[in-house]
Amino acid sequence: MSTFLITGGAGFIGSHLAETLLDRDQHVLVLDDLSSGSVKNIAHLRSNSRFRFVPESVSALNILAEMVDLADVIVHLAATVGVFNIIESPVRTIVNNIGGTEAVLKAAAKKRKKVIIASTSEVYGKSNAASFREDGDLVFGPTSKSRWSYASSKVVDEFLALAYWREFKVPTVVARLFNTIGPRQTGHYGMVVPRFMSQALRGQNLTVYGSGQQSRCFTYVSDIVEWLLLLASIDKAVGEVFNIGNPKGTVTVLSLAQMIIKACKSNSKIKFVPRPYADIEIRIPSIVKARNLLGYEPKIDLEEGLRRTVAWYRERK
Fold first, then answer.
1. What's residue 189's pLDDT?
2. Which of 55, 220, 286, 313 has the most other CB atoms within 10 Å of its CB?
3. For residue 84, what is the domain's CATH number?
4. Is residue 65 part of a domain?
5. Active site residue: 124, 150, 164, 220, which one?
6. Angle at 256 between CA 250 and CA 262, to 5 degrees
7. pLDDT value at 276 more than 90
8. In this structure, is residue 108 part of a structural domain?
9. Strand partners, 181
């Protein structure tokens, strides 16, 4: 048995990761200040004797140090996320993301604990590559556009993680996550699937930005969890960056809206509105590197992922 510390463990992905680890008889520590996570996401886990939740930020350095000492592996998911959040609070985005990652890495360095750093497809910025590779160039817009502050902060997180490995031999792995979907995801910060589902289930028009021809891939959360656990378990992943996503789950945003209306059995229509921020036309990963090392392929296709997610939302209407 191992002990995993999950920062941001009361969030969408973190709560699913904690749940899976407990199902596999591991010990789980969760550190989360609930700024975007929720105790509801982990309520069903708190009676488990192998689970401990501390409602604090990674900036609480003494508490962080204590929990890192108890852990064998750290999965760092805590971050300020969501396009709307980022545009409205660029300072908090930059400070929380870079400062939080630095705090986790400093604490892990004392005993060289393995750290999985959750990064994002946003780091590819304005790249127009048909398929993003981990060794591809990262292309950002001007610093005058706060839209790019999140991507830039996560790039610094990646540089920090890899630098701690090279300079201090802290075993770090960077996972670039592409759009994850599933139960417990909130649409409060601009995530498209929960936003569309909420609108469809209420019979409202689904608001599609621009022409809706932007291409995105969507990955069900259980596949993301499997990838993260494999990255945590394989030594050859240390010091490397991996795309994690499902290229087969690629659709245009307009097609996604139509699929969600169908999955929700809704009479909603589609309403096209101007884009409120700079957007990216294509965001599709190459997962050759992850597939070759981990031997894992996504198990849940987009239609099934949407069905499962809709079922969860219906239960809570």
1. 66
2. 220
3. 3.40.50.720
4. yes
5. 150
6. 130
7. no
8. yes
9. 220
Rounded to whole angstroms, how far apart are CA atoms 211 and 263?
A: 22
Active site residue 277: no
In angstroms, the CA 38 to CA 127 distance is 34
| Angstrom distance (rounded) from CA 27 to CA 21 | 7
The alpha carbon of 164 is separated from its chain's Cα centroid by a whole number of angstroms, namely 22
Establish if 200 belongs to a structural domain: no
Strand boundaries in the chain, DSSP class E: 3-7, 27-31, 51-54, 73-76, 114-120, 172-177, 180-181, 206-209, 215-217, 219-220, 241-244, 250-252, 270-273, 282-283
| pTM assigned to the model | 0.96
Q: Is 132 a domain residue?
A: yes
Degrees, nearest 5: CA angle 92-119-1: 110
Segments forming the whole domain that contains residue 29: 3-178+220-245
Q: Could you give the CA distance from residue 75 to residue 29 in angstroms, rounded to a whole number?
A: 10
Give the residue from 162, 67, 146, 57 showing the smallest Cα distance to 110: 67
**For residue 208, what pLDDT band results from cuts at 50, 70 and 90?**
very high
Q: How many domains does the chain have?
A: 1
Report residue 265 as tokens: 């059995």
